[in-house]
Amino acid sequence: DTGVSQNPRHKITKRGQNVTFRCDPISEHNRLYWYRQTLGQGPEFLTYFQNEAQLEKSRLLSDRFSAERPKGSFSTLEIQRTEQGDSAMYLCASTYGQGLGKLFFGSGTQLSVL
Amino acid sequence: GESVGLHLPTLSVQEGDNSIINCAYSNSASDYFIWYKQESGKGPQFIIDIRSNMDKRQGQRVTVLLNKTVKHLSLQIAATQPGDSAVYFCAENIRKEGSQGNLIFGKGTKLSVKP
Fold first, then answer.
1. Which of A70, B35, B99, B100 is a Cys-bridge partner for B47, taking CB atoms 3.0 to 4.6 Å apart?
2. B91 touching A (Cβ < 8 Å)
């Protein structure tokens, strides 16, 4: 499968715990995006990388959230001290080129904070 | 604030009929628009896109129309099939200075196709 891959598919955690999600983009894609989606809503932009550089972060990305893309390939999104309001689907997407083109999304990681 | 929105949250059509899903946007700086389809438990899947210098674009069974005068976007699906049942999102790219921008999604329309 050469699509965007996200792991794990589901994560259940207790409030206050840290969680980390991984995204493997399509191999030749230089740009990688993280979105968050809650039930009944459209995805909300969190952050994006061009190669290994994190170029933009949303105001939604609080200090408890950190994303990395150390080698310009896979990316991780970590949430520290999780809160119940963090429960959502976390989507990763990738694309190539300089301008904004169509994003290819993974199937997401569903986070449930108890 | 400015946002992308949809006129109808749900749409039910008969198999074989044409479907039209509408979307209103309010940011005149938006230069690129995309329609995505999302099935339950899956990520959004690209359907069709259109740039602001166009007013119509056609794909396989789908057509996107852009009316910049009234800031309106629509997705037309011809001969709707049960496999088209999903939530459809329109998204706009709001270009900002020093940035390529990012996609802002609407809330989505749920399309149900009756056999």
1. B35
2. yes
What is the spatial order of strands in the sheet that B4-5 belongs to? B4-5, B19-25, B72-77, B62-67, B56-58
Nearest to A105 among B32, B44, B49 (CB): B44
Q: What is the pairing mode between strands B10-14 and B109-114?
A: parallel
Q: How confident is the model at residue B16 (pLDDT cuts 50, 70, 90)?
A: very high
Look at residue B1 in the predicted model and tell me its pLDDT. Answer: 35
* Whether pLDDT at A47 is above 80: yes
Listed residue (A71, A77, A68) closest to A22, CA to CA? A77
- Both tokens of residue B79? 């001969």
Q: Would you list the DSSP string of A38-76?
A: -TTS--EEEEEEETTEEEEE-TT--TTEEEE-TTSS-EE
The pLDDT of residue A60 is 80
Mutate to test the interface with A, among B102, B104, B105, B107 (most CBs of A within 10 A): B102
| pLDDT tens per residue across span A81-99 | 999 999 999 999 999 876 6
